[in-house]
Write a structure and sequence with these properties.
Layout lengths: L2 E3 L2 E5 L7 H8 L1 H4 L12 H13 L4 E7 L7 E9 L4 E8 L9 H17 L3 E7 L3 H9 L3 E12 L2 E11 L1
Parallel strand pairs: 5-6
Antiparallel strand pairs: 1-2, 2-3, 3-4, 4-5, 6-8, 7-8
Helix pairs in contact: 4-5
């Protein structure tokens, strides 16, 4: 199954999609600054494969790879997780680990198509994303993908050791 976006496509990741650029990107402080769990430890090909395997086997998540037409390997991921069918809700997150793809609207397009798929295919009614207040690029991507600001969580989470606000955005069916 794949989803089309302007300039590329998405499909669920499998272990053979893991490549050194993906691993290196996850370890890059410029890329992982806002990826809380990823930067907790150095990522390896094995740890990334293990994550892809766990996600692939999970009944409550889908990890999509983002490919551009000019790239043979994926340049980012969108993860739909915490799918709760009873309430029709889920969480979504994005990572473009190829800086050359930043600022091109690729993230917003990927978020939008996965959100539409989640609403149409899974029957979800509420999909939410949290972004650190300093992560303006993610906030813009979610707003561009049709999300609306829902609420703030002030001071609960730490960014670089200091309490910060997390802004929560939501898309509704």
């Amino acid at each position: 199954m794949s989803l089309s976006i302007d300039g590329g496509f998405l499909r669920p990741l499998v272990e053979t999609d893991v490549h050194q650029g993906y691993v290196d990107g996850l370890n890059d402080p410029q890329v992982n600054r806002y990826l809380d769990g990823v930067k907790a430890s150095v990522q390896t090909a094995q740890s990334v494969c293990d994550f892809v395997t766990a996600d692939r086997r999970s009944p409550s998540s889908v990890l999509w790879g983002i490919w551009t037409h000019e790239s043979a390997r994926h340049v980012g991921t969108v993860r739909l997780h915490g799918v709760e069918h009873r309430h029709g809700t889920a969480h979504i997150g994005i990572c473009l680990f190829e800086p050359r793809c930043w600022g091109r609207g690729l993230g917003a397009a990927a978020i939008g198509v996965v959100t539409r798929w989640a609403i149409d295919a899974l029957g979800l009614r509420w999909i939410e994303a949290g972004a650190y207040e300093a992560n303006v690029a993610s906030q813009r991507a979610f707003l561009s993908a049709g999300y609306a600001w829902a609420f703030d969580i002030p001071g609960k989470y730490l960014l670089e050791g200091a309490p910060t606000t997390v802004k929560v955005y939501a898309a509704r069916a």
